[in-house]
Automatic annotation (TrEMBL), chains A, B:
SUPFAM superfamilies recorded: lambda repressor-like DNA-binding domains, Periplasmic binding protein-like I
Pfam family for this entry, one: Peripla_BP_3
Source domain of life: Bacteria
Coiled coil: none
GO molecular function list: DNA-binding transcription factor activity; transcription cis-regulatory region binding
Keywords, alphabetical: DNA-binding, Transcription, Transcription regulation
Source organism (scientific name): Lactiplantibacillus garii
Domain HTH lacI-type, residue spans: 2-56
Keyword Transcription attached: yes
Protein name stated in the entry: LacI family transcriptional regulator
Length: 321, 321
DNA sequence: CAAATTTATGCAATCGCTTGCAAAAGATTT
DNA sequence: AAATCTTTTGCAAGCGATTGCATAAATTTG
């Protein structure tokens, strides 16, 4: 591989000038700069990342750590990934992927964290680089999230508006902010409107939801709408309802959350609260890069930044029009 | 951060000894080594990856490049990812993720390539590091693949064996080896057994398959089995069949390929040819690491290595028992 | 027990690049 | 035209580790 020195010699300048032509183009005479760039292309010169990182203390790598033991069938992360990856690339940053198994491998300038649980915070605290979360947290870390509270109210509102008179919130059995926010949104909605309602919590698997419906079928009268905290639960609920002979959407409405299964399944046209995951990924990457570029100073400690990107209801065939 | 020098001083040795204690433990006196390790822990010393990479010319990074414009709802890649990631971590290698947009960002010791198309080979050829593919190729690159040819024969065989008398192969409309191998397997099976059969090719989306079934419903008599080249197509076909009033599996059988949707959907218990994706990911990582460790020499050029991991049929409710 | 051999440790150079300061060249002012 | 300021370029040092060779210590051998 050609080095900075090779380029310098060939262009009859010192390597410093070449270095500047790359990193601070405005500091070098335009014509000179062009001829240097030309030589660089000629030699197919690529700066050595390791050498750069060594002296500049910038790896130009961002690590995405997925905590939830990488649920390999969950498209959610893939969609975040796409957004993050695209944004980082625009800024010439590389994306490194880590899981619960690989905390320690490799270096980076900052972390994007997702699928995190309470038990993981101890690990997060000992990180020395900037951190951005997916999902609200009370520990003061910057985060990107969707409007969970309001989104559920919207879903519930839509269900009531289309004539369902009995609501069931089907939550995920975890005590994380994203879940409790949704539950609170639902609870407040019920209080405010006085609609008949109940809440259940299930493990986030289709068949669990299907089984639940089978076993508790009698408890769900006609005109019930299920407001679910994930598309998986929604799909499972729908299957259960259909298996019991319930008609969707005429007698039973089902609303999902996430919007990750839309393209996956043809006949299942699920009404769902769609998260703009690509945009959320991009936002997280941008936020992190900003934090990397402007590190906190002692005099001005870090103020938590929150970016909320609203989900919107995607209305389809599992609810009335 | 503590450096090698810091550790050396504290341990009263030269930094060389510390370096050896890390990289060639057998070369340093056991007791000395232990005390060095102790100091390292005390100072929370982590070797600087950049400095290491600079001199050793090893980044300890492997790049996974996904070519197919990252289809964000495709769990296939996530499952590969899990396998690759786990294997790499065991060897203290980091995984970097790249897409069609980000060919050039970041350095690595080798590439794992997936979702590749003919047009991408020009790019691949100019890579200087070892490469491992997912999927057969005739360009001489090492690869990991499943037994596409035989797998389809197994699927078809099972369909015939369970009494379906008419077979339809539903392929993906691309001219890549994985597809042509499957088609050839099907074609040969038909020739050998003389069973009634036909082949179609569709874009790999559920609704395309569903629409196709609707429009060509008359062409599919009872007792037809659809052998599909992906789970998506299978799901789409099944929906189409059901919408037309066909009974699954009594009158129509459906077999998928990949096995990525199994946990996703409860009532859709699809019979599918399950690829061992996690194992394939691990195998690819292992193969690549071996290639990195033992680079080709001039005297002994590279011989293509092929690793085939067999898929097996996972029998469920979309075919007869 | 001295010589030869093996095993452990240290020294110096180097990887490719960027930072801080200094010098040279060019432009502007008085 | 001398003095000052600004822009452009170069020099030297060093980031934190590893490689090759040299030296010191420990062990074996005749």
């Amino acid at each position: 591989m050609a080095t900075l020195n090779d380029v310098a010699k060939r262009a009859n300048v010192s390597k410093m000038t070449v270095s500047r032509a790359i990193n601070h183009p405005e500091q070098v005479r335009p014509e000179l700069r062009d001829s240097i760039l030309h030589v660089m292309a000629e030699l197919n010169y690529q700066p050595n990342a390791a050498a750069r990182a060594l002296v500049s203390r910038r790896t130009r790598v961002v690590k995405l750590t997925i905590f939830e033991d990488m649920d390999t069938t969950e498209p959610y992360y893939m969609m975040l990934l796409a957004g993050i990856s695209n944004e980082l690339n625009q800024h010439q940053y590389a994306l490194q992927l880590a899981t619960s198994n690989s905390y320690e491998v490799g270096e980076c300038d900052g972390y994007i964290l997702t699928g995190i649980r309470q038990k993981n915070y101890a690990w997060v605290e000992q990180l020395r680089q900037p951190v951005v979360f997916f999902g609200r947290n009370q520990q003061g870390y910057d985060y990107v999230d969707t409007n969970n509270y309001q989104a559920i109210q919207d879903s519930a509102g839509y269900a009531v508006q289309t004539g369902y008179t009995n609501l069931v919130f089907v939550g995920i059995a975890v005590d994380e902010p994203f879940e409790t926010d949704r539950e609170q949104g639902f609870r407040d909605f019920v209080t405010q409107t006085g609609v008949g309602a109940r809440m259940i919590r299930l493990a986030n698997h289709c068949h669990v939801a299907t089984d639940y419906v089978r076993q508790h079928w009698r408890e769900f009268p006609r005109n019930t709408a299920f407001i679910c905290a994930s598309d998986r639960l929604a799909i499972g609920i729908e299957d259960g309802v259909i298996l019991q002979g319930g008609r969707v959407p005429d007698d039973y409405g089902i609303i999902g959350f996430d919007g990750v299964l839309l393209n996956q399944i043809a006949s299942k046209r699920l009404t769902t609260m769609q998260q703009p995951l690509e945009a959320m990924g991009r936002a997280a990457a941008r936020l992190l890069l900003a934090n990397i570029a402007h590190p906190d100073t002692e005099s001005q400690p870090h103020a938590q930044e929150k970016i909320i990107i609203n989900s919107r209801l995607s209305i389809s065939e599992s609810t009335r029009a």
